[in-house]
Design brief:
Length: about 140
């Protein structure tokens, strides 16, 4: 089970079929799950109708399969506890709390389904992984 982070969808949308992110998304579509957190982040980034249509094009394919993962109530609580620990240990992350909270929700949601998070965001996800083990793969655009 594959769980792509928002940055990979954005790269695929911006650079199209020739991008490694697009190819990875396409190749893994049959085993890809979409996080409600990621879907919200993608929709929040749409500033025009063209962007919205592109986001819908990507998310609709997965939505049709029913492979949507929404963080459970317990997952939200675990995320809150985890972000508090990170900020306590590293107060310099306080300004990134909202972004980190979404990334933590993505990681914990992947755990809910036994999935692997694929991302280009090495720094944040390695930080989260110091506090909670989860399956993680990095995709770097060539």
């Amino acid at each position: 089970m594959v769980y792509f982070d928002t940055n990979l969808y954005i790269t695929a949308i911006h650079y199209g079929e020739s991008s490694f992110a697009y190819q990875s998304l396409f190749e893994n579509l049959p085993r890809t799950y979409l996080s409600s957190v990621i879907s919200a982040e993608l929709h929040a980034g749409c500033t025009d109708d063209i962007g919205l249509q592109l986001v819908k094009q990507y998310t609709r394919r997965i939505e049709k399969t029913g492979r949507i993962v929404t963080p459970a109530h317990a997952t939200w609580n675990k995320a809150g506890i985890l972000i508090a620990k990170i900020i306590k240990d590293s107060p310099n992350y306080k300004s990134k709390a909202a972004v980190l909270l979404n990334d933590i929700l993505i990681a914990l949601s992947a755990i809910q389904i036994g999935g692997t998070v694929y991302t280009a965001n090495k720094e944040d996800f390695l930080l989260i992984r110091r506090y909670r083990s989860f399956s993680l793969q990095f995709i770097i655009e060539n």
